[in-house]
Design a protein that fits this description.
Layout lengths: L2 H6 L3 H11 L19 E3 L30 E3 L10
Antiparallel strand pairs: 1-2
Length: 87
C-alpha cells in the first residue's frame, strides 16, 4: 500500500474506490432549453451588416453577430438583473 494511504489510515479497498471515483470522467454539460439571453436587449462595439448584435440572441442558429475588423470587440446582453453595487 502507498505510504500516504497508510498514513491516512485508508484500507486498500477504500483507497481503490477513492481512486476510481477521482478518475471518473466529468458528467456532460447540457444547454438550457431556452437561452437566458434569448430576446434580450443587446449592444455591441460594432456590427458588420447583415449580422447585427440582435442575431446573437434571437434563438435562431442560422443567424449570428459579426463585428467590424478591429480589436477589441465586445457584445453586451442586458439580462434584466439590477446593477450590483461595488463591494
Amino acid at each position: 500500500m502507498h505510504p500516504l494511504l497508510r498514513r491516512l489510515g485508508l484500507s486498500a479497498v477504500v483507497a481503490a474506490l477513492l481512486l476510481t471515483f477521482v478518475s471518473l470522467p466529468a458528467p456532460r454539460a447540457h444547454a438550457a432549453e431556452t437561452l437566458l439571453s434569448q430576446g434580450r436587449p443587446v449592444a455591441a462595439s460594432s456590427t458588420e451588416e447583415p449580422f447585427s448584435a440582435q442575431g446573437a440572441v434571437d434563438g435562431n442558429p442560422s443567424t449570428r453577430w459579426s463585428s467590424a475588423f478591429s480589436d477589441p470587440q465586445w457584445i453586451r446582453v442586458d439580462l434584466g438583473a439590477p446593477p450590483r453595487s461595488p463591494a
